[in-house]
Amino acid sequence: SNLQLRHVEGVVTVAAPPHAKGVTLGEPLSSDDALDPHHLRLVVPSHQFSQNALIPSPDKYLEMYKRSIEDPAGFWSDIASQFFWKQPWNAYSVFSENLDVRNGPVHIQWFKGGSTNISYNCLDRIVESGYGDKIALFWEANDPGVGATSLTYNQLLSRVCQLANYLKHIGVKKGDAVVVYLPMLMELPITMLACARIGAVHSVVFAGFSAESLAQRIVDCKPKVVITCNAVKRGSKTIHLKDIVDGALLQSAQNGDVVPKYPTHCEVEWVDAEDPLFLLYTSGSTGKPKGVLHTTGGYMVYTATTFKYAFDYKPTDIYWCTADCGWITGHSYVTYGPLLNGASVIIYEGAPNYPDSGRCWDIVDKYKYVTRYSRESLRILGSVGEPINPSAWRWFYNVVGDSRCPISDTWWQTETGGFMITPLPGAWPQKPGSATFPFFGVQPVIVDEKGVELEGECSGYLCVKNSWPGAFRTLYGDHERYETTYFKPFPGYYFTGDGCSRDKDGYHWLTGRVDDVINVSGHRIGTAEVESALVSHPKCAEAAVVGVEHEVKGQAIYAFVTLVEGVPYSEELRKSLVLTVREQIGAFAAPDRIHWAPGLPKTRSGKIMRRILRKIASRQLNELGDTSTLADPSIVDQLIALADS
Ligand code: PRX
């Protein structure tokens, strides 16, 4: 099963590379495997694994992929018809798109004219097909052995209806925004599904965000209500969320346990396939977070399908995604994707290392009822959010998966709605650290800085040609920024903001962001957001933030700050600068390092040379490049001298 996938006229073809050598699932990777990317071992699915997989071979993938590219309307219509639609979509124009700004406004529509409801498809449809007593959600509390509970599909439907009725009662209508500021309680997916049921647009704000970040999002999307809870336990700490919300709202939200009084039946609001489902704010390269807008029909079809194939879903599986619903992964792969497949999903309230670092494996074993930490039940492992380096891959494969489980290293973004480049575990050999090949319907291209598509083995900017059903449709209230950020850099394509290389076998390797966005432990943070938090400190005059490599977190935040004239730098001031970022954005965005700077390296036109700052931050002092064009080249030496002080 060694193969080569090559892009030929936008379609992938297969050939066997003579050099390929592999280990088969079941065999461990030795420590010298996987370290040199040019001599990587392939990890080949075993015959038994492939035989039972939904996509059992490269040929099957290619057959489906080819159809998805050559006949997207037919391919996606066949899948979409497995869901419930109150009205069918327009069969003559299943989708319409313009991704080329030169041809007018960018627009993407899928299944236009169809009306449906994603909450109905996640719940009522599953109940009606006889699975009402199947567990939909298992909830595992922060403290082991305390309060674990579960809901069947029937029970989940009732809970969703009660909340939906309550929301209607307090005046929430179709199209209204609802901000959800909740931790990983079952109430979080319940709220999302209740909003979707009545056609309201949810905007979940990760519960680690501060009052100011929450306020910023409330101001932008103007919700009718904000839904929160009093407090959450995370590790040994109790976090008082309601106090944070009160800090963000002028008036305090309504108190009290009112929802259970409401009826457990609630009629569905049928919505157009292109009606908005949710807004999710994400970081970009300017200070203001972007409200990524996803609509209903295409997102539903895409998340369900990617979930099914990337995890080779079997109805007997118990599925756990450790992501928080405050991020896109929790939307697409805790809530919608799995429930649309009728899966049983684990939701975990707490931190992965509480009470100790065995907690994840404890949960894994608990829900398969086997002896402590055997992890025997694991079938497939998933990963998302940042490149996995080969040695982490090897640990995940050898230790966590006992060399038995394929790893779906899924590359995608808040904007893409669902997986874009991902292994299909039974189909082809994996290379540790590579997200492998495109999902059905996705045409990734790698372009050079002029926007010219590169062929074969290459490296450049990752773009996508043509739309896919799960694509975001706009940035809320700012279609112009949507076009400028994503479609103008390389006209004709969707620009991802990521660098990527493709190897001789056609595998894709993501190399990280090429814009001013940094990725700290999978949290996407705009350098400009951290900078504006820092400069809001009364003693900070100017700030420049860069990402530096970090062994555990992927990247860490490194901030250069200049102070208001006459203010001395001190340990106390450092702490107060870090605190400002924690308060304005959240603890996850706190800089690891504050580097006091008497001045910043700027061009004569006043532009900060971040390239140089990145080199200083990572102590690559031989690679500073030409500094002679700076307005004041001596700044660089001063910064180097202060680097370790
Ligand atoms: O840089 C890529 C990285 O995460 C970015 C998207 O972040 P966000 O919108 O927060 O979504 C995270 C969950 C989808 C991408 O632009 N990224 C995501 N997945 C991978 C990745 N980098 C490498 N490998 C991945 N599998």
TrEMBL record:
Residues 61-122 form the Acetyl-coenzyme A synthetase N-terminal domain. It is an enzyme of class 6 (ligase). Residues 130-368, 374-467 form the AMP-dependent synthetase/ligase domain. Belongs to the ATP-dependent AMP-binding enzyme family. It comes from the Eukaryota. PROSITE patterns: AMP_BINDING (PS00455). Residues 529-607 form the AMP-binding enzyme C-terminal domain. It comes from Ficus carica. It is found in: Cytoplasm. PANTHER family: ACETYL-COENZYME A SYNTHETASE, ACETYL-COENZYME A SYNTHETASE 1. Keywords: ATP-binding, Cytoplasm, Ligase, Nucleotide-binding. GO terms for biological process: acetyl-CoA biosynthetic process. Its EC number is 6.2.1.1. Its main location: cytoplasm. SUPFAM superfamilies: Acetyl-CoA synthetase-like (SSF56801). Pfam families: ACAS_N, AMP-binding, AMP-binding_C. This is acetate--CoA ligase. GO terms for molecular function: acetate-CoA ligase activity; ATP binding. GO terms for cellular component: cytoplasm.
